[in-house]
Write a structure and sequence with these properties.
The protein is α+β, with helices and mostly antiparallel strands. It has six helices and 34 strands.
Length: 551
Protein backbone atom coordinates (compact mmCIF):
# COMPACT_ATOMS: atom_id res chain seq x y z
CA UNK A 1 0.00 0.00 0.00
CA UNK A 2 1.28 3.44 -0.94
CA UNK A 3 1.84 5.86 1.93
CA UNK A 4 1.95 9.62 2.31
CA UNK A 5 4.75 10.44 4.75
CA UNK A 6 6.28 13.54 3.22
CA UNK A 7 5.19 17.09 4.03
CA UNK A 8 4.21 17.57 0.39
CA UNK A 9 1.47 14.89 0.93
CA UNK A 10 2.24 12.70 -2.02
CA UNK A 11 -0.73 11.22 -3.87
CA UNK A 12 -1.86 7.89 -2.30
CA UNK A 13 -2.88 5.37 -4.94
CA UNK A 14 -5.03 2.24 -4.94
CA UNK A 15 -3.20 -0.96 -4.01
CA UNK A 16 -4.72 -2.69 -7.07
CA UNK A 17 -4.19 0.06 -9.68
CA UNK A 18 -2.71 3.54 -10.02
CA UNK A 19 -5.87 5.58 -9.38
CA UNK A 20 -6.22 7.72 -6.22
CA UNK A 21 -7.34 5.75 -3.14
CA UNK A 22 -10.89 6.39 -1.84
CA UNK A 23 -11.88 3.39 0.33
CA UNK A 24 -10.10 1.09 2.72
CA UNK A 25 -10.70 -2.55 3.63
CA UNK A 26 -10.05 -2.82 7.34
CA UNK A 27 -10.31 -6.60 7.13
CA UNK A 28 -7.55 -6.92 4.51
CA UNK A 29 -5.75 -3.63 5.23
CA UNK A 30 -5.68 -2.52 1.58
CA UNK A 31 -6.49 0.87 -0.01
CA UNK A 32 -9.01 0.82 -2.86
CA UNK A 33 -10.44 3.15 -5.51
CA UNK A 34 -14.16 2.97 -6.38
CA UNK A 35 -13.51 0.79 -9.43
CA UNK A 36 -11.51 -1.80 -7.53
CA UNK A 37 -13.87 -2.44 -4.57
CA UNK A 38 -15.90 -5.13 -6.37
CA UNK A 39 -12.75 -6.66 -7.84
CA UNK A 40 -11.28 -6.98 -4.32
CA UNK A 41 -14.45 -8.46 -2.78
CA UNK A 42 -14.91 -10.97 -5.62
CA UNK A 43 -11.31 -12.12 -5.39
CA UNK A 44 -11.81 -13.08 -1.74
CA UNK A 45 -15.48 -14.15 -1.67
CA UNK A 46 -15.07 -16.38 1.35
CA UNK A 47 -13.87 -13.50 3.51
CA UNK A 48 -15.84 -10.80 5.23
CA UNK A 49 -14.75 -7.30 4.17
CA UNK A 50 -15.14 -4.19 6.29
CA UNK A 51 -15.07 -1.42 3.63
CA UNK A 52 -14.86 2.12 5.04
CA UNK A 53 -13.81 5.57 3.68
CA UNK A 54 -10.03 5.86 3.55
CA UNK A 55 -10.05 8.63 6.17
CA UNK A 56 -11.82 6.32 8.68
CA UNK A 57 -9.50 3.39 8.25
CA UNK A 58 -8.12 1.52 11.26
CA UNK A 59 -4.76 -0.15 11.35
CA UNK A 60 -5.09 -3.70 12.68
CA UNK A 61 -3.76 -7.16 12.22
CA UNK A 62 -4.83 -9.00 9.11
CA UNK A 63 -5.63 -12.55 10.23
CA UNK A 64 -5.19 -15.32 7.67
CA UNK A 65 -8.22 -17.04 6.14
CA UNK A 66 -8.90 -20.46 7.60
CA UNK A 67 -8.21 -23.26 5.17
CA UNK A 68 -10.86 -25.50 6.77
CA UNK A 69 -13.77 -23.11 7.28
CA UNK A 70 -14.85 -20.49 4.73
CA UNK A 71 -15.64 -16.97 5.86
CA UNK A 72 -13.50 -17.56 8.98
CA UNK A 73 -10.21 -15.94 9.92
CA UNK A 74 -7.68 -17.55 12.16
CA UNK A 75 -7.37 -15.39 15.26
CA UNK A 76 -5.69 -18.09 17.39
CA UNK A 77 -2.74 -20.42 17.13
CA UNK A 78 -2.75 -24.13 18.08
CA UNK A 79 0.44 -24.73 20.00
CA UNK A 80 0.09 -28.50 19.78
CA UNK A 81 -0.28 -28.55 15.99
CA UNK A 82 1.65 -25.28 15.40
CA UNK A 83 -0.94 -23.97 12.93
CA UNK A 84 -3.34 -20.98 12.80
CA UNK A 85 -6.94 -21.89 13.81
CA UNK A 86 -10.37 -20.20 13.67
CA UNK A 87 -13.21 -20.34 16.24
CA UNK A 88 -14.78 -23.32 14.47
CA UNK A 89 -11.51 -25.23 14.58
CA UNK A 90 -11.50 -24.96 18.36
CA UNK A 91 -14.73 -26.95 18.58
CA UNK A 92 -13.63 -29.39 15.95
CA UNK A 93 -10.32 -31.14 15.31
CA UNK A 94 -8.38 -28.86 17.67
CA UNK A 95 -10.75 -29.34 20.61
CA UNK A 96 -8.84 -29.60 23.90
CA UNK A 97 -5.53 -28.37 22.36
CA UNK A 98 -3.45 -25.63 23.94
CA UNK A 99 -4.46 -22.44 22.14
CA UNK A 100 -2.71 -19.05 22.12
CA UNK A 101 -4.14 -15.77 20.94
CA UNK A 102 -2.72 -14.94 17.49
CA UNK A 103 -2.09 -11.32 18.54
CA UNK A 104 0.14 -12.55 21.40
CA UNK A 105 2.01 -14.86 19.01
CA UNK A 106 2.54 -11.97 16.61
CA UNK A 107 3.74 -9.73 19.42
CA UNK A 108 6.29 -12.34 20.54
CA UNK A 109 7.47 -12.90 16.98
CA UNK A 110 7.77 -9.16 16.38
CA UNK A 111 9.85 -8.78 19.53
CA UNK A 112 12.11 -11.58 18.28
CA UNK A 113 12.32 -9.97 14.83
CA UNK A 114 13.14 -6.63 16.46
CA UNK A 115 15.92 -8.16 18.58
CA UNK A 116 17.41 -10.04 15.67
CA UNK A 117 17.11 -7.01 13.41
CA UNK A 118 19.03 -4.93 15.94
CA UNK A 119 21.67 -7.66 16.18
CA UNK A 120 21.94 -7.88 12.38
CA UNK A 121 22.23 -4.08 12.15
CA UNK A 122 25.09 -4.29 14.65
CA UNK A 123 26.79 -6.98 12.52
CA UNK A 124 26.48 -5.00 9.24
CA UNK A 125 29.33 -2.50 10.05
CA UNK A 126 31.58 -5.42 11.05
CA UNK A 127 30.70 -7.20 7.82
CA UNK A 128 31.42 -4.05 5.80
CA UNK A 129 34.73 -3.65 7.62
CA UNK A 130 35.68 -7.23 6.76
CA UNK A 131 34.52 -6.68 3.19
CA UNK A 132 36.82 -3.64 2.94
CA UNK A 133 39.64 -5.69 4.46
CA UNK A 134 39.03 -8.46 1.90
CA UNK A 135 38.98 -5.91 -0.93
CA UNK A 136 42.30 -4.45 0.25
CA UNK A 137 43.84 -7.92 0.45
CA UNK A 138 42.56 -8.76 -3.04
CA UNK A 139 44.03 -5.53 -4.37
CA UNK A 140 47.39 -6.10 -2.65
CA UNK A 141 47.44 -9.72 -3.79
CA UNK A 142 46.79 -8.71 -7.38
CA UNK A 143 49.61 -6.16 -7.25
CA UNK A 144 51.88 -8.74 -5.60
CA UNK A 145 51.21 -11.43 -8.20
CA UNK A 146 51.59 -8.98 -11.10
CA UNK A 147 54.98 -8.04 -9.63
CA UNK A 148 55.76 -11.72 -9.10
CA UNK A 149 54.99 -12.41 -12.76
CA UNK A 150 57.27 -9.55 -13.84
CA UNK A 151 60.05 -10.90 -11.63
CA UNK A 152 59.60 -14.37 -13.11
CA UNK A 153 59.78 -12.94 -16.65
CA UNK A 154 62.93 -10.99 -15.75
CA UNK A 155 64.46 -14.12 -14.26
CA UNK A 156 63.56 -16.01 -17.44
CA UNK A 157 65.52 -13.41 -19.43
CA UNK A 158 68.46 -13.63 -17.02
CA UNK A 159 68.47 -17.43 -17.26
CA UNK A 160 68.45 -17.24 -21.04
CA UNK A 161 71.26 -14.67 -20.98
CA UNK A 162 73.35 -16.83 -18.65
CA UNK A 163 72.78 -19.91 -20.80
CA UNK A 164 73.61 -17.89 -23.94
CA UNK A 165 76.80 -16.64 -22.26
CA UNK A 166 77.81 -20.19 -21.35
CA UNK A 167 77.35 -21.51 -24.86
CA UNK A 168 78.86 -18.41 -26.46
CA UNK A 169 81.99 -19.14 -24.41
CA UNK A 170 81.75 -22.82 -25.33
CA UNK A 171 81.42 -22.04 -29.05
CA UNK A 172 84.29 -19.57 -28.86
CA UNK A 173 86.46 -22.14 -27.08
CA UNK A 174 85.58 -24.82 -29.64
CA UNK A 175 86.47 -22.42 -32.44
CA UNK A 176 89.72 -21.47 -30.68
CA UNK A 177 90.61 -25.13 -30.21
CA UNK A 178 89.70 -25.81 -33.82
CA UNK A 179 91.90 -22.99 -35.03
CA UNK A 180 94.74 -24.07 -32.73
CA UNK A 181 94.59 -27.76 -33.73
CA UNK A 182 94.23 -27.09 -37.45
CA UNK A 183 96.94 -24.40 -37.36
CA UNK A 184 99.32 -26.77 -35.54
CA UNK A 185 98.67 -29.57 -38.02
CA UNK A 186 98.93 -27.24 -41.00
CA UNK A 187 102.19 -25.88 -39.63
CA UNK A 188 103.60 -29.44 -39.48
CA UNK A 189 102.25 -30.13 -42.94
CA UNK A 190 103.84 -26.94 -44.25
CA UNK A 191 107.23 -28.00 -42.83
CA UNK A 192 106.87 -31.44 -44.41
CA UNK A 193 106.01 -29.96 -47.79
CA UNK A 194 108.82 -27.44 -47.53
CA UNK A 195 111.33 -30.20 -46.71
CA UNK A 196 109.96 -32.39 -49.46
CA UNK A 197 110.36 -29.57 -51.96
CA UNK A 198 113.90 -28.96 -50.71
CA UNK A 199 114.76 -32.65 -51.00
CA UNK A 200 113.46 -32.83 -54.57
CA UNK A 201 115.57 -29.81 -55.44
CA UNK A 202 118.63 -31.33 -53.69
CA UNK A 203 118.19 -34.61 -55.58
CA UNK A 204 118.15 -32.69 -58.87
CA UNK A 205 121.30 -30.77 -57.86
CA UNK A 206 123.05 -33.99 -56.76
CA UNK A 207 122.25 -35.68 -60.06
CA UNK A 208 123.73 -32.71 -61.88
CA UNK A 209 126.89 -33.11 -59.75
CA UNK A 210 127.07 -36.78 -60.66
CA UNK A 211 126.95 -35.86 -64.34
CA UNK A 212 129.49 -33.04 -63.96
CA UNK A 213 133.12 -33.46 -64.97
CA UNK A 214 134.16 -30.40 -63.00
CA UNK A 215 136.25 -31.15 -59.98
CA UNK A 216 134.99 -28.05 -58.22
CA UNK A 217 131.32 -29.11 -58.50
CA UNK A 218 132.06 -32.46 -56.92
CA UNK A 219 134.51 -31.12 -54.41
CA UNK A 220 132.11 -28.41 -53.19
CA UNK A 221 129.33 -30.90 -52.46
CA UNK A 222 127.58 -30.21 -49.11
CA UNK A 223 125.71 -33.14 -47.59
CA UNK A 224 122.13 -32.48 -46.39
CA UNK A 225 121.31 -36.07 -45.57
CA UNK A 226 121.52 -35.57 -41.82
CA UNK A 227 119.16 -32.59 -42.06
CA UNK A 228 116.66 -34.52 -44.15
CA UNK A 229 116.69 -37.52 -41.86
CA UNK A 230 115.10 -35.29 -39.19
CA UNK A 231 111.64 -35.57 -40.67
CA UNK A 232 109.22 -33.06 -39.08
CA UNK A 233 106.89 -34.92 -36.77
CA UNK A 234 103.14 -34.65 -36.93
CA UNK A 235 101.96 -33.89 -33.39
CA UNK A 236 99.71 -36.54 -31.91
CA UNK A 237 96.92 -34.29 -30.66
CA UNK A 238 94.22 -35.67 -28.41
CA UNK A 239 90.88 -34.41 -29.65
CA UNK A 240 88.77 -32.96 -26.84
CA UNK A 241 85.30 -34.28 -26.07
CA UNK A 242 82.25 -32.54 -24.65
CA UNK A 243 81.17 -33.87 -21.26
CA UNK A 244 77.54 -33.22 -20.32
CA UNK A 245 75.43 -34.14 -17.34
CA UNK A 246 71.76 -33.47 -16.67
CA UNK A 247 70.00 -34.04 -13.35
CA UNK A 248 66.46 -33.01 -14.20
CA UNK A 249 65.35 -30.01 -12.15
CA UNK A 250 68.53 -29.97 -10.08
CA UNK A 251 71.69 -29.43 -12.10
CA UNK A 252 72.95 -28.98 -15.64
CA UNK A 253 76.64 -29.13 -16.44
CA UNK A 254 78.81 -29.02 -19.54
CA UNK A 255 82.58 -29.41 -19.73
CA UNK A 256 85.22 -29.07 -22.41
CA UNK A 257 88.80 -29.64 -21.27
CA UNK A 258 89.51 -27.23 -18.40
CA UNK A 259 86.39 -25.16 -19.06
CA UNK A 260 83.33 -26.13 -17.06
CA UNK A 261 79.95 -24.45 -16.58
CA UNK A 262 77.30 -25.52 -14.09
CA UNK A 263 73.70 -24.39 -13.66
CA UNK A 264 72.12 -25.47 -10.38
CA UNK A 265 68.54 -24.76 -9.39
CA UNK A 266 68.60 -23.16 -5.96
CA UNK A 267 67.10 -19.68 -5.78
CA UNK A 268 66.14 -17.38 -8.60
CA UNK A 269 67.51 -14.30 -6.84
CA UNK A 270 71.10 -15.56 -6.83
CA UNK A 271 71.27 -16.77 -10.41
CA UNK A 272 74.64 -15.22 -11.13
CA UNK A 273 76.14 -17.18 -8.22
CA UNK A 274 74.75 -20.42 -9.64
CA UNK A 275 76.85 -20.24 -12.80
CA UNK A 276 80.51 -21.03 -12.22
CA UNK A 277 83.32 -20.85 -14.74
CA UNK A 278 86.75 -22.43 -14.58
CA UNK A 279 89.15 -20.53 -16.79
CA UNK A 280 91.24 -22.31 -19.35
CA UNK A 281 94.01 -19.72 -18.98
CA UNK A 282 95.15 -17.26 -16.34
CA UNK A 283 96.81 -13.86 -16.66
CA UNK A 284 100.57 -13.76 -16.26
CA UNK A 285 101.98 -11.65 -13.47
CA UNK A 286 104.04 -9.85 -16.10
CA UNK A 287 103.43 -9.86 -19.83
CA UNK A 288 106.43 -10.56 -22.06
CA UNK A 289 107.36 -9.67 -25.63
CA UNK A 290 108.15 -12.71 -27.77
CA UNK A 291 108.60 -10.93 -31.11
CA UNK A 292 109.37 -7.46 -32.47
CA UNK A 293 108.29 -7.07 -36.08
CA UNK A 294 109.34 -4.03 -38.15
CA UNK A 295 106.51 -3.41 -40.65
CA UNK A 296 107.76 -0.23 -42.37
CA UNK A 297 104.11 0.91 -42.31
CA UNK A 298 103.75 4.65 -41.84
CA UNK A 299 101.49 5.55 -38.90
CA UNK A 300 100.47 1.98 -38.10
CA UNK A 301 96.77 2.17 -37.25
CA UNK A 302 95.17 -1.25 -37.49
CA UNK A 303 96.14 -4.88 -36.84
CA UNK A 304 94.06 -8.01 -37.61
CA UNK A 305 95.53 -11.44 -36.80
CA UNK A 306 95.26 -14.40 -39.17
CA UNK A 307 95.66 -17.78 -37.46
CA UNK A 308 98.65 -18.09 -35.16
CA UNK A 309 101.58 -16.48 -36.99
CA UNK A 310 100.33 -13.77 -39.37
CA UNK A 311 98.55 -10.43 -39.22
CA UNK A 312 97.19 -7.83 -41.62
CA UNK A 313 98.34 -4.28 -40.87
CA UNK A 314 97.36 -0.90 -42.30
CA UNK A 315 98.48 2.67 -41.85
CA UNK A 316 98.14 6.06 -43.52
CA UNK A 317 97.78 4.84 -47.11
CA UNK A 318 95.71 2.48 -49.24
CA UNK A 319 97.93 -0.55 -48.74
CA UNK A 320 97.00 -3.40 -46.41
CA UNK A 321 99.93 -5.75 -45.78
CA UNK A 322 100.00 -9.30 -44.38
CA UNK A 323 103.15 -10.11 -42.40
CA UNK A 324 104.25 -13.21 -40.51
CA UNK A 325 105.73 -13.30 -37.04
CA UNK A 326 109.26 -13.20 -38.57
CA UNK A 327 108.56 -9.95 -40.42
CA UNK A 328 108.21 -11.48 -43.89
CA UNK A 329 105.55 -10.00 -46.16
CA UNK A 330 103.05 -12.73 -47.12
CA UNK A 331 100.53 -10.71 -49.12
CA UNK A 332 99.49 -7.15 -50.00
CA UNK A 333 96.12 -5.66 -50.92
CA UNK A 334 95.52 -2.25 -52.46
CA UNK A 335 92.27 -1.03 -50.93
CA UNK A 336 89.60 0.97 -52.76
CA UNK A 337 89.89 3.74 -50.17
CA UNK A 338 90.78 7.29 -51.18
CA UNK A 339 93.01 7.67 -48.13
CA UNK A 340 93.11 4.68 -45.76
CA UNK A 341 90.80 1.95 -44.47
CA UNK A 342 88.92 2.95 -41.32
CA UNK A 343 89.22 -0.57 -39.95
CA UNK A 344 90.29 -4.08 -40.95
CA UNK A 345 89.33 -7.53 -39.65
CA UNK A 346 89.18 -11.15 -40.83
CA UNK A 347 86.33 -13.63 -41.10
CA UNK A 348 86.36 -17.12 -39.62
CA UNK A 349 87.52 -18.29 -43.05
CA UNK A 350 90.49 -15.90 -42.68
CA UNK A 351 89.26 -13.58 -45.43
CA UNK A 352 90.25 -9.92 -45.12
CA UNK A 353 87.48 -7.33 -44.63
CA UNK A 354 87.99 -3.57 -44.59
CA UNK A 355 85.74 -0.48 -44.42
CA UNK A 356 85.87 2.23 -47.09
CA UNK A 357 84.33 5.24 -45.34
CA UNK A 358 84.32 7.48 -48.41
CA UNK A 359 82.47 5.00 -50.64
CA UNK A 360 80.21 3.88 -47.74
CA UNK A 361 81.17 0.24 -48.29
CA UNK A 362 82.45 -2.76 -46.37
CA UNK A 363 84.61 -4.85 -48.70
CA UNK A 364 85.91 -8.42 -48.62
CA UNK A 365 89.02 -9.74 -50.36
CA UNK A 366 88.57 -13.19 -51.93
CA UNK A 367 91.22 -14.86 -54.04
CA UNK A 368 92.99 -11.53 -54.44
CA UNK A 369 89.85 -9.75 -55.67
CA UNK A 370 87.90 -7.11 -53.77
CA UNK A 371 84.09 -7.43 -53.54
CA UNK A 372 81.55 -5.10 -51.93
CA UNK A 373 79.93 -6.90 -49.01
CA UNK A 374 77.80 -4.11 -47.50
CA UNK A 375 76.76 -0.65 -48.63
CA UNK A 376 75.76 1.70 -45.81
CA UNK A 377 72.58 3.83 -46.08
CA UNK A 378 72.95 7.29 -47.58
CA UNK A 379 74.27 9.75 -45.01
CA UNK A 380 76.01 7.01 -42.98
CA UNK A 381 79.60 5.82 -43.31
CA UNK A 382 81.01 2.45 -42.09
CA UNK A 383 84.04 2.58 -39.80
CA UNK A 384 84.74 -0.04 -37.11
CA UNK A 385 84.31 -3.74 -37.98
CA UNK A 386 83.90 -7.04 -36.14
CA UNK A 387 83.07 -10.54 -37.41
CA UNK A 388 81.16 -12.59 -34.82
CA UNK A 389 81.43 -16.34 -34.33
CA UNK A 390 77.89 -16.75 -35.72
CA UNK A 391 78.93 -15.08 -38.98
CA UNK A 392 77.27 -11.71 -38.31
CA UNK A 393 79.20 -8.52 -39.03
CA UNK A 394 79.07 -5.63 -36.56
CA UNK A 395 79.69 -2.26 -38.21
CA UNK A 396 80.08 1.03 -36.36
CA UNK A 397 78.83 3.93 -38.46
CA UNK A 398 78.94 7.70 -38.38
CA UNK A 399 76.97 10.39 -40.16
CA UNK A 400 78.60 12.55 -42.80
CA UNK A 401 78.84 15.49 -40.37
CA UNK A 402 80.24 13.22 -37.57
CA UNK A 403 77.33 14.22 -35.28
CA UNK A 404 75.87 10.74 -34.69
CA UNK A 405 77.26 7.24 -34.16
CA UNK A 406 75.62 3.82 -34.10
CA UNK A 407 76.47 0.12 -34.37
CA UNK A 408 74.62 -2.02 -36.92
CA UNK A 409 74.47 -5.82 -36.98
CA UNK A 410 74.36 -7.42 -40.45
CA UNK A 411 73.50 -10.96 -41.48
CA UNK A 412 74.79 -10.94 -45.01
CA UNK A 413 73.45 -7.67 -46.39
CA UNK A 414 70.38 -7.66 -44.10
CA UNK A 415 70.25 -5.35 -41.07
CA UNK A 416 69.11 -7.30 -37.98
CA UNK A 417 69.90 -4.81 -35.20
CA UNK A 418 70.76 -1.14 -34.71
CA UNK A 419 72.23 0.16 -31.46
CA UNK A 420 72.15 3.92 -31.16
CA UNK A 421 70.16 5.15 -28.11
CA UNK A 422 69.65 3.96 -24.54
CA UNK A 423 66.35 3.36 -22.75
CA UNK A 424 66.06 7.09 -22.03
CA UNK A 425 66.48 8.02 -25.68
CA UNK A 426 69.98 9.40 -25.18
CA UNK A 427 72.84 8.57 -27.61
CA UNK A 428 74.99 5.66 -26.42
CA UNK A 429 77.99 6.72 -28.53
CA UNK A 430 79.30 10.25 -28.80
CA UNK A 431 79.54 12.07 -32.11
CA UNK A 432 83.01 13.01 -33.33
CA UNK A 433 85.67 12.42 -35.98
CA UNK A 434 87.25 9.28 -34.45
CA UNK A 435 86.38 5.72 -35.43
CA UNK A 436 84.35 3.75 -32.88
CA UNK A 437 85.96 0.29 -32.75
CA UNK A 438 83.64 -2.62 -32.04
CA UNK A 439 84.07 -6.17 -30.70
CA UNK A 440 81.80 -9.04 -29.64
CA UNK A 441 82.27 -10.55 -26.18
CA UNK A 442 80.09 -13.57 -25.35
CA UNK A 443 77.02 -11.82 -26.73
CA UNK A 444 77.91 -8.36 -25.41
CA UNK A 445 78.89 -5.65 -27.87
CA UNK A 446 82.00 -3.75 -26.78
CA UNK A 447 82.83 -0.36 -28.28
CA UNK A 448 85.98 1.73 -27.93
CA UNK A 449 84.56 5.26 -28.24
CA UNK A 450 87.57 7.55 -28.71
CA UNK A 451 85.21 10.54 -29.11
CA UNK A 452 84.09 10.09 -25.50
CA UNK A 453 87.36 8.47 -24.31
CA UNK A 454 85.21 5.62 -22.99
CA UNK A 455 84.71 1.89 -23.49
CA UNK A 456 80.95 1.18 -23.69
CA UNK A 457 79.50 -2.32 -23.31
CA UNK A 458 75.89 -3.17 -24.18
CA UNK A 459 74.16 -6.53 -23.86
CA UNK A 460 72.68 -8.61 -26.67
CA UNK A 461 69.50 -6.48 -26.62
CA UNK A 462 71.46 -3.21 -26.86
CA UNK A 463 71.00 -2.15 -23.21
CA UNK A 464 74.04 -0.42 -21.66
CA UNK A 465 75.74 -2.72 -19.11
CA UNK A 466 78.63 -0.47 -18.13
CA UNK A 467 81.11 2.21 -19.21
CA UNK A 468 84.84 2.30 -18.45
CA UNK A 469 87.12 5.36 -18.65
CA UNK A 470 89.61 5.00 -15.80
CA UNK A 471 93.25 6.01 -15.82
CA UNK A 472 95.67 3.08 -15.44
CA UNK A 473 97.55 2.82 -12.11
CA UNK A 474 100.23 5.50 -12.21
CA UNK A 475 98.87 6.90 -15.48
CA UNK A 476 99.65 10.56 -16.14
CA UNK A 477 97.16 11.17 -18.92
CA UNK A 478 93.41 10.68 -19.25
CA UNK A 479 92.21 7.37 -20.63
CA UNK A 480 92.52 7.44 -24.43
CA UNK A 481 91.19 4.20 -25.97
CA UNK A 482 92.12 3.06 -29.45
CA UNK A 483 91.68 -0.38 -30.97
CA UNK A 484 90.61 -3.13 -28.56
CA UNK A 485 90.03 -6.89 -28.59
CA UNK A 486 88.30 -9.60 -26.54
CA UNK A 487 89.74 -13.04 -25.85
CA UNK A 488 88.46 -16.55 -25.14
CA UNK A 489 88.23 -15.82 -21.41
CA UNK A 490 85.93 -12.85 -21.93
CA UNK A 491 88.70 -10.33 -21.16
CA UNK A 492 88.45 -6.90 -22.78
CA UNK A 493 91.89 -5.53 -23.75
CA UNK A 494 92.12 -1.87 -24.76
CA UNK A 495 95.07 0.05 -26.19
CA UNK A 496 95.58 3.33 -24.27
CA UNK A 497 97.50 5.64 -26.63
CA UNK A 498 98.56 8.44 -24.33
CA UNK A 499 99.48 6.23 -21.34
CA UNK A 500 101.50 3.78 -23.52
CA UNK A 501 99.83 0.68 -22.11
CA UNK A 502 97.04 -1.88 -22.44
CA UNK A 503 94.12 -2.14 -20.01
CA UNK A 504 92.83 -5.67 -19.30
CA UNK A 505 89.25 -5.79 -17.97
CA UNK A 506 86.98 -8.69 -17.11
CA UNK A 507 83.67 -9.13 -18.95
CA UNK A 508 81.90 -7.00 -16.31
CA UNK A 509 84.27 -4.05 -16.71
CA UNK A 510 86.42 -4.65 -13.63
CA UNK A 511 90.04 -3.59 -14.12
CA UNK A 512 92.36 -6.61 -13.80
CA UNK A 513 95.80 -5.63 -15.04
CA UNK A 514 97.80 -3.08 -16.97
CA UNK A 515 100.39 -4.14 -19.57
CA UNK A 516 102.93 -1.31 -19.37
CA UNK A 517 106.28 -3.15 -19.31
CA UNK A 518 106.66 -4.04 -22.98
CA UNK A 519 107.90 -0.79 -24.52
CA UNK A 520 104.51 0.18 -25.93
CA UNK A 521 105.00 3.69 -27.25
CA UNK A 522 101.74 5.08 -28.60
CA UNK A 523 99.93 1.74 -29.16
CA UNK A 524 97.12 1.95 -31.70
CA UNK A 525 96.52 -1.35 -33.52
CA UNK A 526 95.57 -4.38 -31.46
CA UNK A 527 94.56 -7.97 -32.23
CA UNK A 528 94.75 -11.44 -30.65
CA UNK A 529 95.83 -14.63 -32.43
CA UNK A 530 94.37 -18.11 -31.96
CA UNK A 531 97.06 -18.97 -29.42
CA UNK A 532 95.89 -16.07 -27.24
CA UNK A 533 98.84 -13.73 -27.92
CA UNK A 534 98.44 -10.00 -28.42
CA UNK A 535 99.75 -8.31 -31.57
CA UNK A 536 100.22 -4.61 -30.83
CA UNK A 537 100.90 -2.01 -33.53
CA UNK A 538 102.85 1.11 -32.50
CA UNK A 539 101.72 4.22 -34.34
CA UNK A 540 104.94 6.24 -34.58
CA UNK A 541 107.57 3.54 -35.12
CA UNK A 542 105.45 1.22 -37.28
CA UNK A 543 106.73 -1.68 -35.16
CA UNK A 544 104.48 -4.58 -34.19
CA UNK A 545 105.02 -6.46 -30.93
CA UNK A 546 103.73 -9.96 -30.17
CA UNK A 547 103.02 -10.27 -26.44
CA UNK A 548 102.18 -13.22 -24.20
CA UNK A 549 99.92 -12.19 -21.32
CA UNK A 550 98.19 -15.48 -20.37
CA UNK A 551 99.46 -18.90 -19.36
Amino acid sequence: MATATSQAQELITCDLCVKPVQQFCNSCQVGLCEDCINKHVKSLKSMKHDIVPFTKRTVQLVFPQCTSHSHQRCEAHCQQCDVPVCIKCLTGQHRGHMIEDMADVITKVREKVKRETEQIEAIIPQNREKDTEAENKISKSMVHFVQLEKQAKNQRKQWHLEVDNIFNKMEFLIQSLTDHYISTLKSSQSKLRSQNSSMIQTVQVNKEILKSNKVSDVNNYQSKLKEYRNIPQIPNLTLPSLQMNTVQGIELSIELREYKAILTQTSLSSLTDEVSFLSVKELLEEARVIANIPTNVKNLYKVACVGSDKAWVSGRDKMIVCMDIHGAVQDTVTSTCKDLPSDITVTRKEELIYSDTGKRTVNIVRDGKTETLITAPRGWHPMGLCCTRSGDILVSMGTTDYSHRKIVRYQGQRVTQEIEKDEHGDPIYQGGEYTVFVENNNGDIVASDRNADTVVVVDRAGKVRFRYNNKPPGGKESFCPSQMVTDSMGHIIVADQFNNCLHILDQNGQFLRCVDNCGLEYPMGLSVDIEGRLWVGLFDSGEMKVIEYMK
